[in-house]
Amino acid sequence: MKNLDKDKINQKLENFKGTQRYDGFGKLSFTIILVQLETASHAGSVARLIKNFDFKELVIFNPIASNKQILNYETQGFAMHGKDILLNSTIINVEDQQHHIHTLKEYLKQFDLTIGTTAKGKHYTNLSRLSIFPDDFDLPRSQKSLNIAVLFGKESRGLTNEELDLIDILLRIPASESYPTLNLSHAVGIILYELYRKLHSIPLGRGENPVLLSDKEDRQILYQHIQELIRKIKIRNFREKDTLQALKNIIERAMMTNRELTLILGLFSKLNSLLKDVELFDDEK
Q1: 162, 179, 201: which is the final residue of a domain?
Q2: Contact at 8 Å (CB) between 185 and 42?
Q3: Domain at 133, CATH number
Q4: List of long-range contacts for 153-156, beta carbons under 8 Å, 24+ apart
Q5: I want to staple 211 with a disulfide (CB 3.0 to 4.6 A). Which of 31, 90, 149, 204 is the partner?
Q6: Domain-located, residue 227
Q7: CB neighbours of 235 closer than 8 A, spacing ≥ 6?
Q8: Which residue range(s) make up the domain with 113?
Q9: What does the pLDDT look like over 109-139, one tens digit per residue?
């Protein structure tokens, strides 16, 4: 009976590639825009999230919080290792608030695609607020550079209708209908997580000791050992197939790693060895 090929496993480890962008997404660049930020500490939390999910650009557009508050040491504390994102952020102040929408509209002209967020559902009667879930959103693949803006509104009310009119695609995070509005930084975290998943090929493991999922060929070796054990313990013939299939179903759903497969395969191999010369009674019940 075959055993796992250790040379093949070592080769897989040598060829392991960490998280990387899918082909077709390499030309996409993202700018996270906080519109009329009210609470300075949220800028720090968002900067940290931008760093977490490997984005680069933060723009704070026409904030209600002062520039000094946004860049102070307390806010930097919320940013943690995203401090560089915060300190290199672009803060755009609009002196005359009557020009807020016009200034935002002019600023967004540099982007090829604008994405906004809302807490309102699809039943909302305002056509500007018709939204899709992040999971349903397909990122564009492009051979040329595409600049994408992701906008989040003020904490107290989100993006206004006038601001939403400047948006190409509106996303909504599914949440309880009784209270669908999320904290700003929490909403940013969920959206950036969803974008990160769509942009990248993400292996289970990382670093010097990556976790490798077992492949189908190696799992077949385990099934052979299980089948041999089932035969030796003399389960009734009509139960053999179903018993093996039930175990296969469990193993396939488990997304077993190479390490787990090796340990479990060793167990069944040992059991088969112990039962090699043992005569067991038939299952007659």
Answers
A1: 201
A2: yes
A3: 3.40.1280.10
A4: 153/35, 153/36, 153/116, 153/117, 154/35, 154/36, 154/37, 154/38, 154/64, 155/37, 155/38, 155/39, 155/42, 155/183, 155/184, 156/38
A5: 204
A6: yes
A7: 243, 283
A8: 20-201
A9: 999 999 999 886 555 555 556 788 998 888 8
